[in-house]
């Protein structure tokens, strides 16, 4: 039940030149001249460290942006749950005047429950805001593969796209997506 068209794709029928190519760059190099010159081992290590450091900085900026967005969006939940835990007699039982005059154990329990109920939709909103911002700013294009350090003359991913982080020169306003 062998198909004659599928037999043409056996590994035995591949040209010998495919097995002899030592290791071409794994990225699309249409605009660049091949074969490219490999860096020296020391230069390769230095460039790999530079690219790795740049990727770490971009990662830390993404984490900082994520933490800021989540902190701002989840602030109502944090405040409500904090006051609920602060005034409940079995948790902290603060001696603040609002705990003794306004909030008793039942209202503190209600605040705790309300805080945790509000948390789920606000997490979804925070993630949607973060994903939309990352997509709009093209922040994941700032990450560069370490294979860029192996060959001399490799163009950075963002060099032709309009600057750092791959921000295009003209935004495409026709594309819309629901998050």
UniProtKB/TrEMBL annotation:
<dbReference type="InterPro" id="IPR033355">
    <property type="entry name" value="TMEM88"/>
</dbReference>
<keyword id="KW-0472">Membrane</keyword>
<feature type="transmembrane region" description="Helical">
    <location>
        <begin position="44"/>
        <end position="75"/>
    </location>
</feature>
<comment type="similarity">
    <text>Belongs to the TMEM88 family.</text>
</comment>
<keyword id="KW-0812">Transmembrane</keyword>
<keyword id="KW-1133">Transmembrane helix</keyword>
<feature type="transmembrane region" description="Helical">
    <location>
        <begin position="110"/>
        <end position="133"/>
    </location>
</feature>
<dbReference type="GO" id="GO:0005886">
    <property type="term" value="C:plasma membrane"/>
</dbReference>
<protein>
    <submittedName>
        <fullName>Transmembrane protein 88B</fullName>
    </submittedName>
</protein>
<dbReference type="GO" id="GO:0030165">
    <property type="term" value="F:PDZ domain binding"/>
</dbReference>
């Amino acid at each position: 039940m062998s198909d004659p068209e599928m037999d043409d794709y056996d590994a035995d029928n591949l040209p010998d030149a495919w097995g002899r190519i030592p290791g071409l760059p794994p990225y699309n190099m249409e605009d660049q001249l091949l074969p490219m010159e490999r860096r020296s081992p020391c230069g390769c290590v230095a460039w790999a460290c530079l690219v790795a450091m740049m990727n770490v900085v971009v990662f830390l900026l993404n984490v900082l942006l994520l933490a800021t967005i989540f902190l701002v969006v989840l602030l109502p939940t944090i405040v409500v749950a904090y006051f609920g835990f602060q005034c409940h007699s079995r948790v902290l039982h603060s001696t603040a005047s609002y705990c003794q005059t306004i909030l008793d154990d039942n209202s503190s329990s209600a605040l705790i429950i309300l805080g945790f109920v509000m948390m789920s939709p606000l997490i979804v909103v925070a993630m949607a805001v973060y994903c939309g911002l990352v997509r709009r700013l093209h922040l994941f294009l700032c990450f560069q593969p370490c294979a860029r350090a192996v060959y001399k003359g490799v163009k950075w991913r963002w060099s032709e796209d309009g600057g750092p982080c791959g921000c295009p020169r003209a935004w495409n306003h026709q594309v819309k997506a629901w998050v």
